[in-house]
Specification:
One of its GO terms (biological process) is thiamine transport. Strands 1, 2, 3, 4, 5, 6, 7, 8, 9 and 10 form a ten-stranded mixed β-sheet that branches. This protein has 340 residues and is α/β, with parallel strands linked by helices. It has 13 helices and ten strands. Helix content is 40%, strand content 14%. It starts with a helix and ends with a helix. The protein has helices at residues 5-29, 44-55, 66-75, 92-97, 170-182, 191-201, 213-217, 228-237, 267-276, 280-288, 301-304, 310-313, 321-338, and strands at 34-35, 84-88, 101-102, 124-136, 161-162, 223-227, 242-245, 251-261, 292-293, 316-318.
Length: 340
């Protein structure tokens, strides 16, 4: 005897619901939360898309900066939301010391230079960039392209210079130190850098808290203290009227790091993501996005050919992460008290 139509529908609905419930946990596992992975920064957008394609793990983009990411991790310590975090190198040890990271040594750990990883595995570098001037030449209104830190203090650039907020953004804090070292300061003596930013404040700078790539491309911020990789992306990928300048006084090369969040809800997926960002494919992707991969052999000759000449990069020196991290609280305090 055939089953009444109503009962057949009810049974089909019940089976469908059972199947959905049964597969929900598996689907939920194919996710990892990354703090501070903005799609417009360092071409994270392409990287997250590739992670999804290769690993089947969805990693939503996130627009926090380094300081905001650490603040959120501390606030969520009792019930973590994130699985991995991406930070400017200056924030690496502070994040470790805050107890929000847990050791994990990814597959390519042994190849990472000693100075670019925490010995216990709390963080490791994945790529680096050189800080300088990301300039929209079309937005300068006929003014000459600045070639030095000192040029930024000229009245002709009033209201045209931007830098990320040093009270929370790693690149903002690095900007203070880069200028400071270039003008004769040290990791212990911040006076030249603070003096510069006090003078720059009279020139009405633009000080956003978040990555401002699009605002440079549009011309809203004509001159931004930012990295070479963002400028090259604008010039060669987005075909904008932008260029990168390494100030004649000098600058620094700065690594960006990742780490596994302590108690993250998707820790296994987080580990897979951390393994992937050091893989040959991922490192090549970083290189094609004009970053310098932590494994230098993955910067292609084609990408390297678009960088400024090596003679210009000779003015860029590696930053001392340990000393920079020690100076970070002083940078924030002095900027708040004397510049902001």
């Amino acid at each position: 005897m055939s089953m009444p139509k109503f009962h057949r529908y009810a049974l089909a609905a019940a089976l469908a619901l059972t199947a959905l419930v049964g597969t929900a946990p598996a689907q939920a596992q194919q996710r990892a939360i990354c703090y501070n992975c903005p799609p417009e920064w360092a071409d994270w957008g392409s990287q997250l898309k590739t992670i999804n394609q290769r690993l089947g793990i969805q990693v939503p983009s996130d627009n926090k900066n380094s300081g905001q990411a650490i603040a959120a991790l501390i606030a969520e310590k009792a019930s973590p939301v994130a699985d991995v975090v991406y930070l400017g190198g200056i924030a690496a040890d502070p994040a470790r010391d805050a107890g929000v990271l847990t050791p994990y040594k990814p597959k390519a750990w042994d190849k990472i230079p000693a100075g670019l990883k925490d010995p216990e595995g709390n963080w490791f570098a994945i790529h680096s960039g050189t800080l300088g001037l990301f300039i929209n030449t079309a937005a300068l209104g006929g003014k000459p392209v600045p070639q030095s830190w000192a040029d930024l203090l000229k009245p002709e650039y009033k209201g045209m210079v931007g830098y990320l907020d040093p009270t929370s953004a790693a690149v903002g804090q690095l900007g203070v130190m880069a200028v400071n070292l270039a003008l004769g300061g040290t990791y212990d003596n911040l006076e030249p850098g603070i003096k510069f930013f006090k003078a720059l404040a009279k020139n009405q700078p633009i000080v956003p808290k978040q990555t401002s790539y699009a605002r440079v491309i549009s011309g809203e911020i004509p001159i931004l203290l930012d990295y070479d990789f963002n400028a090259y992306r604008g010039q060669y990928t987005d075909k904008a009227a932008v260029r990168f300048v390494i100030p004649k006084e000098g600058t620094v090369v700065f690594p960006y790091v990742m780490g596994l969040v302590k108690g993250g809800p998707n820790a296994d997926n987080g580990r897979k993501v951390l393994d992937y960002v050091l893989s040959d494919e991922s490192q090549t992707l970083w290189g094609n996005a004009y970053l310098r991969p932590v494994f230098a052999e993955h910067l292609s000759a084609e990408a390297k050919a678009r960088f400024l000449p090596d003679a210009d990069y000779a003015r860029a020196k590696p930053v001392d992460l340990k000393r920079l991290a020690t100076a970070q609280p002083k940078i924030i305090e002095r900027y708040k008290n004397e510049v902001q």
